[in-house]
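Final report, closing paragraph on structural work. Over the funding period we assembled a curated collection of sequence-structure pairs, and we close with a single example.
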Amino acid sequence: MIPSDLEAELTQHHRAAFGWALACCWWDRAMAEDVLQTTYLKIVDGRARYAGRSAFRTWLFGVIRRTAGEERRRRAVRRMLPLASLDGRGAARATGPDPATAMERAEASARLVAALRRLPARQREVLHLVFYQELTIAEAGAVMRVSLGTARTHYERGKTRLRALLGEGTDA
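Its predicted structure, as stored:
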């Protein structure tokens, strides 16, 4: 049984946690769902414990990040094994109210995801945490386990490179 305050915290942060899991899993929805489920199990089973040294959300995002890294390593090992291709789950379908609007959004989203994929991992992570999860740069640094100065550097370099990749900035 989950304590009600823990359940309330997890429920409150679920949408943001799933968005962060997607970013940590390179936008692979099935993998993000697995990572989030594993994260929640770690928390409920007591393998991951909130000690109160940071905000709950910051701690939760750190657990998700580490769990995603573990899952990526597991999947890499499975790919090397002969039976690795037995995992045949497909991606969930996305629906939209207006096909034209959905197509425009999908194209813009695909362009942004493609540009984000071209960024180094730390730049991509800090930008996601700051822009999509609305964390401060200091909180993003805590999630990533880097200093504030390092997080700021990755944030600034990531923004500059992303602008160049999207064609909004000057040539870089």
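Confidence is low (pLDDT under 50) at residues 83-96. DSSP finds seven helices and no strands in the chain. We thank the funder for supporting this effort.
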